[in-house]
């Protein structure tokens, strides 16, 4: 199947997709800051440039989009019908990179949290996710994954 828009239009549309400072990320940052947590944004000193780095807790937080990072079982994890091979290769590369970054951070002694976009779509979900993340930051667990259903096992 071919693309329904021309290449120039598609390029303009794709360039508008943010990689940093997304709405879900901003919502989570506000909620954590309100709870007294301080963090570094997209720190180049930490492998993988996590969305949030909390050196005091030796923890990093990634806010993953369900579509781009392939949140398994999520209704927002769809695959475009145009050029499915291209998309599958792109998604596979994203998932592989996420696994490598997570493993490297854990080996380096960092604790890793992944908060999925579906857990940050409504204000009450943001509050619940921030509470779960706050409790995790104060614990000694090394990983957590938060989605719309709550905490997932990694």
UniProtKB/TrEMBL annotation:
Entry-linked InterPro entries: DNA_mismatch_endonuc_vsr, Restrct_endonuc-II-like
Record-level GO BP terms: mismatch repair
UniProt GO molecular function: endonuclease activity; hydrolase activity
UniProt superkingdom: Bacteria
Keywords, ordered alphabetically: DNA damage, DNA repair, Endonuclease, Hydrolase, Nuclease
SUPFAM superfamilies with a match to the protein in the record: Restriction endonuclease-like
EC number(s) from the headed UniProt entry: 3.1.-.-
Role description: May nick specific sequences that contain T:G mispairs resulting from m5C-deamination.
Family: Belongs to the vsr family.
NCBIfam families: vsr (TIGR00632)
Protein name from the UniProt record: Very short patch repair endonuclease
Organism expressing this protein natively: Paracoccus haematequi
Gene name per UniProt: vsr
